[in-house]
């Protein structure tokens, strides 16, 4: 009972395909949750699950012990935190800020620096596991920030994920997510090039996929993602446009250290071409089309 | 008893790190096996397991119903089949020829064409699963050739592998193996670029590997191969020089169809640079060094 009463009041900003199920899991774990979303309807829809709808970030921030953000692009994160009606303008001292958006590590560091000035505690905590992981509460949560702050909010994160790791100081969660996306770029493109080669040589992509996916060539990207394209399904699990966002951040970060990552660069280039051709709202498996459509 | 008596007499050429354990599994399955190897000692060592040592390919070929080859490079395959003291010069009509070396699909087709002229039956049947799969009899065997010939020799292949697939006409086993190697190139380099990025950003490669390897970024290459480099272990599971051989074949095959595979090309280029620096006898995980040694 005491534990229940001590549960922190959470303000959740960004209730989209990832955020909404994360809110539901926080509610299930017994946390009081207020919600804000730019498209109001998506936040209001969570009232039936027990969330309290807030019309402004100000209203949300003033009644929250922990503010979680799960929005779209780095620009959105910047606006939500640093905007004139944003979090920094409205959060009470002592509030914990957790940005779970995949965004720029530099931005995470800027948020942390401002938080320190304002007497707030900031963590970057991007996730992997997709909308399925968000629904099932099985996300991997990659955290950057101070050990003490991490320990304080860990129970909150445990309501949304199963594998929760402090990776290092501010920005380290984002850097780890970038490493994750870089590895995905390689595995996904390798699977796509393999299938394109097989098709070019007159083999059945399905048969080749079945033959090689359980061995040394196997990857989650091959089995769960690229396989959909082999079946002609380009529906988004993970949007190509969001993958491009992530790869651009990773490339900028690598460039700033003069670290050359040619495979990442190739996959980013191919993906950007596909986006220009109107494929941004497809799933990342659309990369196969680059190779097999001539 | 009848099944036992009907077991085909096998001639096995190439008793190296892969071939030797494959011979042992054929012997265990009850097949009479004769062995030939360029370095004679490696073939003679199998006498204690019940194999019959032969000093020349001629001696081996004249007493075999099925000749299996598992040698090194395409040049070796060519010599063994087409050389003046080779298989075609010596095999009896009706003999089955199974090349399990990873080699050029064009060479597999040339072998099949010659076999037809000579009244022999040829299959290409490269494998995946490495020396571990060879020892444990759990190889994946990717076969190209005629359905009828495949059915005839399938019991022989089943003594060495668990997943045995007819992929299409002559050369299709090799093409499938090439697709496998292309997918490996992507997954391996993606994992290497991810780890190099993490290190560059001051994170622990071990910690990042643990955090991301069980999710969407996960691959056999990340978990079983690149992980060794993260631990500082560059010992060969799979030799870099052999991977280069395979990638060169794959690239030549792609080039001949004007199929561009930029990720494969990057990984081949990086690998060739590493070989020039003397890393050819390391395992493929040495690719990490390209990114982290400056």
What does this structure look like?
Two copies of one chain form a homodimer. The first copy, chain A, has 294 residues and is of the alpha/beta class. Chain A has two domains: 2-168, Rossmann fold (3-Layer(aba) Sandwich), CATH 3.40.50.720; 175-292, Orthogonal Bundle (N-(1-d-carboxylethyl)-l-norvaline Dehydrogenase, domain 2), CATH 1.10.1040. The first copy, chain A, is 53% helix and 13% strand. The first copy, chain A, has 15 helices and nine strands. Chain A has helices spanning 2-5, 19-28, 40-44, 57-62, 74-82, 87-90, 105-118, 130-136, 147-158, 172-200, 205-212, 220-230, 240-256, 262-276, 287-292, and strands spanning 10-13, 33-36, 52-53, 66-69, 96-99, 121-124, 127-128, 139-144, 161-168. In chain A, the strands form two sheets. In chain A, strands 3-2-1-4-5-6 form a six-stranded parallel beta sheet. A three-stranded mixed beta sheet of chain A has the order 7-8-9. The longest helix of chain A is centred in the middle third of the chain and has 29 residues, at 172-200. The N and C termini of chain A lie far apart (64 Å). The model of chain A is unreliable at 1-5 (pLDDT under 50). Chains A and B meet through β9, α10, α11, α12 and α13 of A and β9, α10, α11, α12 and α13 of B.
Q: How many individual domains of chain A?
A: 2
Instruction: Please give the oligomerization state of what you see.
Output: homodimer
Q: H/E element string of chain A?
A: HEHEHEHEHHEHEEHEHEHHHHHH
Parts with pLDDT < 50 across at least 5 consecutive residues of chain A: 1-5
Residue-averaged pLDDT of chain A = 96
Determine the strand fraction of chain A and express it as a percent band: 5-15%
Largest sheet of chain A: 6 strands, parallel
